[in-house]
Write a structure and sequence with these properties.
Elements (H helix, E strand, L loop, with lengths): L1 H13 L6 E2 L4 E2 L13 E5 L5 H9 L12 H9 L4 H17 L4 E2 L9 H9 L3 H4 L10 H4 L1 H8 L1 H4 L1 E2 L19 E6 L1 E2 L13 H4 L11 E5 L4 H4 L5 E3 L15 E6 L7 H4 L1 H17 L1 E2 L8 E3 L5 E2 L3 E16 L2 E16 L10 H10 L5 H7 L10 H12 L3 E3 L1 H6 L13 E3 L1 H8 L20 E3 L5 E3 L99
Parallel strand pairs: 4-5, 10-14
Antiparallel strand pairs: 1-2, 3-14, 6-10, 6-12, 7-11, 8-9, 8-13, 14-15, 16-17, 18-19
Helix pairs in contact: 2-3, 3-4, 8-13
Length: 571
């Protein structure tokens, strides 16, 4: 018998080392642990998240009395994985878990949530489609719970039982198509379209009490840089300012509600695996379907990666708890695994650092504290979520305008030829365009600025121009005077109008009088809605919403006659 064993060992050593030696890392499985798991193939299943500790403990639980009690769980895993040390074993299991998620059949495509196509989904996250535009009528048409009934069904089933992908392919959500830079995203809504849900101030009767109504206000808008999200806003550049730096006032924009989520750098972390589920819950189910929160602020997407969103003070936050089942096979000296089932997902308010819960920035700080995110990424997030302390929003505006070459100088600093500190935020000063100022100062060089002489004025209500001619400036009527303006409209050539299904930009381009959001002429107004995905024919209730001042200015975001805009941020 001893001779037989010796011959077997010799054959193993002289062949390809497949019995007791693992070729990958030349780690020898000691004969001292003969009888332990691994001598024969085995399978383990566990109802926990996939990570090193859970797989290790489940494998170790299969150990029989034949395996020496001196063999530790870590030593067994190092031997089975054929790696040199514990760190390598943990890294190997992370790779195995990544593959287990990739191999699963328990997934659900984000595109299958609405089943209305990429164009619809893209416009939804830009703030469009009938999900956002329509308001219920008093006779029950355009009821959100009916029009978006599929959202409720998906929540009850796939959203809590499958892995949903994050739709990076939607350029409204991710304009650069390069995934979210810091693993954070959020939405901001400016209207409430649903009554009776204890959220927002939409009420009944709908046609008089749900026009341009507000969501619950949980943040302050600071500014929007339109270049961040051109594919979503359809605006190539410029910016909108929602603040009053001159008056040292904030929160002047009206009610806005922002809510988001974030995820770890490890793509096998629960927060990363189910980030698509989280986007569905936050953007489609919890806020649109449940609360009726809709519409984007002008110049920004309704939802997107954090780096593409408007700069605000804060956002609420949702995190996910997952109950999963994994199966791992050990065959031929190798592990392979699969996510066998998503047993349940729970969507909870984020638990943040320093007991600051339901707060996206605080949750991200917790990820940093747990080693799941970096301080550098947190600092970047804080450039978009600037904080709720007084003055934070206006300071963010001043800092942003500084990057555009717009600075503020006090009168004394101008007289002395110097600049005041932006951070001091003096209440007196003026906006200076440094490029024009330089051109004006170097007028002898005949620069473009020098070619724009100042207009001479007098105190007599006239502007004088070179050559002695005088232009009389008629006084404008008082604010309450009526101005009669005669407008002649050319009769439109009906032959140039598009039939149903033809191209259009506005309703007037269509014979049917109805241009869909897809820029295709729809059925004549008054017809049945059919299966058209764009149902934004309106009911006479919708109004332009929350138009800010583009460029340098401050504005209420209402757009309903309550404009608080000013021509300057400071003087």
């Amino acid at each position: 018998m001893k001779l037989t064993v010796a011959l077997l060992l010799l054959a193993s050593a002289s062949a390809d080392k497949t019995t007791f030696l693992r070729r990958a890392d030349t780690v020898t499985r000691s004969l001292a642990i003969t009888g332990c798991p691994g001598e024969t193939d085995f399978t383990v299943t566990f109802d926990k998240h996939c990570d090193y500790n859970n797989l290790r403990d489940q494998v170790y639980s299969t150990k029989t009395a034949a395996c020496p009690s001196t063999v530790t769980n870590d030593a067994l895993m190092i031997n089975l994985l054929a790696v040199p040390d514990l760190d390598a074993a943990k890294a190997k299991v992370t790779d195995l878990c990544r593959t287990a998620y990739a191999n699963t059949d328990e997934n659900f495509a984000f595109a299958d949530i609405t089943k209305k196509g990429t164009q619809f989904d893209n416009e939804y996250y830009s703030g469009g489609t009938y999900f956002n535009y329509e308001i219920q009528t008093d006779d029950g048409e355009n009821e959100l719970k009916k029009d978006a009934a599929r959202i409720g069904r998906v929540f009850q089933d796939e959203a809590q039982r499958k892995v949903v992908d994050l739709p990076y392919y939607l350029n409204s959500f991710d304009p650069d198509q390069d995934e979210c830079d810091i693993n954070a995203a959020y939405c901001c809504w400016v209207q409430d379209r649903q009554a009776g849900d204890n959220n927002g101030n939409c009420n009944t009767p709908y046609e008089s009490q749900c026009i341009d109504r507000d969501p619950g206000d949980n943040t302050n808008f600071c500014y929007t840089d339109h270049s961040r999200s051109s594919p979503a806003s359809h605006v190539d550049g410029g910016y909108s300012i929602f603040g009053d730096v001159k008056g040292n006032k904030e929160n002047i924009e009206g009610s806005v509600h922002c809510h988001g989520f974030a995820w770890a750098q490890d793509d096998t972390d629960v927060s990363a695996i189910y980030k698509g589920n989280n986007l569905f819950f936050v953007s489609l189910y919890d806020h649109m379907y449940q609360r009726g929160y809709v519409r984007n602020a002008p110049g920004e997407p309704m939802c997107g990666c954090a780096e593409n969103m408007a700069v605000v003070t804060r956002a609420d936050c949702t995190e996910i708890a997952a109950a999963e089942r994994f199966t791992f096979d050990y065959t031929g000296g190798q592990f392979s695994g699969v996510l066998a089932k998503v047993r349940d997902l729970n969507f909870n308010a984020c638990q943040g650092a320093n007991n600051r819960n339901n707060d996206l920035e605080a949750y991200y700080e917790r990820l940093v504290n747990e080693g799941k995110q970096t301080q550098e990424n947190l600092n970047t997030l804080r450039e978009t979520l600037v904080g709720t302390a007084a003055g934070k929003c206006n300071q963010a505006i001043v800092d942003f305008l500084g990057t555009k070459g717009i600075t503020r100088e006090t009168a004394g600093a101008i007289a002395a030829g110097g600049e005041a500190m932006i951070g001091a935020m003096p209440m007196e000063g003026e906006a200076i365009d440094p490029i024009y100022a330089e051109e004006e100062a170097t007028s002898t060089q005949n620069t473009p600025g020098a070619e724009m002489p100042k207009v001479p004025t007098t105190d007599s209500g006239t502007d004088t121009i070179q050559g002695g001619a005088t232009v009389v400036v008629e006084e404008l009527p008082e604010k309450d005077d009526e101005i009669e303006i005669e407008v002649t409209l050319e009769e439109e050539d009906e032959s140039s109008l598009s039939e149903e299904g033809g191209p259009c930009e506005i309703d007037e381009n269509c014979v049917t009088g109805k241009c869909l959001g897809s820029q295709v002429c729809g059925k004549a107004k008054g017809n049945d809605k059919g299966d058209d995905w764009d149902k934004n024919e309106g009911n006479g209730a919708s109004k332009p919403v929350r138009e800010p001042v583009i460029g340098v200015g401050v504005a209420d975001n209402k757009g309903n006659g309550k404009d608080r805009s000013s021509s300057t941020i400071w003087e």
